[in-house]
Design a protein that fits this description.
The longest helix is centred in the middle third of the chain and has 20 residues, at about 110-130. Helices cover about 30% and strands about 20% of the residues. It contains seven helices and twelve strands. The chain has a seven-stranded mixed beta sheet, with helices on one face. A five-stranded mixed beta sheet has the order 4-3-2-11-12. Helix 6 runs parallel beside helix 7 (about 230-245). The chain is globular. It has about 300 residues and is α/β, with parallel strands linked by helices.
Length: about 300
């Protein structure tokens, strides 16, 4: 019996190590969120927005592109064609000013995957510049796949902005009230105690309307293994968002599109950029503090 047990264990470890490009994922997951997050980094406002757009403008949102997957190169030219046409939209408020990626950028936590993603992001920035939008930037958050094979070191050294917990504010014009954008580290399926404490402190001091980006959903139609599993943490976040002028929470991970109206804020799960060929356009009005989501766009 003991011999059979060890034989099965060796077989299991071998499969985990050599299947796909994940490596021994369960044993080589990477740092815990408590090790990654010690403070909230405050970034400068995107130059493509500040003082140039007026109070109403749009941003592009993708999630789960999984660069490095054997399907990651499927028909990307079709997306470039959509982006190019959107940059020329007769309604200037619908021309994207920056992009957010909600995690799982790297399929297996490898440097080459980060290089491929950066080439993709650079192409979008060049296209935006050619259309008269300078400073188009991609802002990213960490997903669980990004941690595979100790991928955190690769991610923080190669993926903008190189930190997993941060915020910035935008003011499309000097008279605008503005908008705060929060980017959370949920790559381990939890914020952890320190990040949650810092987030509470920051949001309670911030009166601006807010948009939150996170990888793991608060709620995923009852599929608990795809959402933040700690019920107390989940409820704390929902209460925090409801009390502190959060307008929209954007999430990935589940590879499906769902919308939930929590009364004071909306939760928007966005389908996978790779597997569903999907993305979203978000239009904000900084004067009214309103947010309009254009979901389920496809390329």
């Amino acid at each position: 019996m003991k011999k059979l047990f060890y034989t099965l264990l060796v077989l299991f470890l071998s499969l985990m190590t050599f299947s796909c490009n994940m490596g021994a994922y369960w044993f080589v997951f990477g740092q815990d969120v408590e090790d990654r997050v010690s403070s909230l980094k405050v970034l400068d406002s995107p130059s493509s927005v500040t003082g140039t757009t007026g109070s109403v403008y749009s941003i592009l949102v993708i999630t789960d592109p999984h660069f490095g997957s054997d399907r990651a190169d499927q028909d990307i030219e079709a997306f470039y064609e959509w982006f190019d046409s959107q940059l020329k939209n007769s309604d200037e408020t619908l021309r994207p000013r920056f992009m957010i990626c909600l995690g799982d950028i790297l399929d297996g936590g490898h440097k080459g995957e980060a290089d491929d993603f950066n080439e993709f992001a650079d192409t979008l920035a060049q296209m935006a510049s050619a259309a008269g939008i300078s400073g188009f930037t991609t802002y990213s958050i960490l997903g669980n796949h990004d941690l595979y094979n100790y991928g955190w070191d690769v991610w923080k050294e190669n993926i903008n902005p190189g930190t997993s917990f941060y915020k910035f504010t935008t003011h499309g014009s000097a008279s605008d009230k503005g908008m705060s954008w929060y980017f959370l580290d949920t790559a381990n399926g939890t914020l952890g105690d320190r990040q949650l404490e810092l987030l509470q402190e920051e949001m309670e001091e911030d009166s601006l309307p807010k948009i939150v980006s996170m990888h793991y959903p608060l709620y995923c139609g009852g599929i608990i293994q795809l959402s933040i599993q700690n019920a107390l943490e989940r409820n704390t976040l929902m209460s925090l968002f409801a009390k502190n002028n959060v307008k929209l929470v954007m999430e990935g991970h589940a590879h499906r599109s769902k919308h939930y109206d929590s009364g004071s804020f909306e939760e928007h799960l966005i389908s996978s950029f790779l597997y569903s060929r999907a993305f979203s356009l978000i239009t904000v009005d900084e004067n009214s503090g309103s947010v309009l989501s254009h979901p389920d766009l496809e390329y």
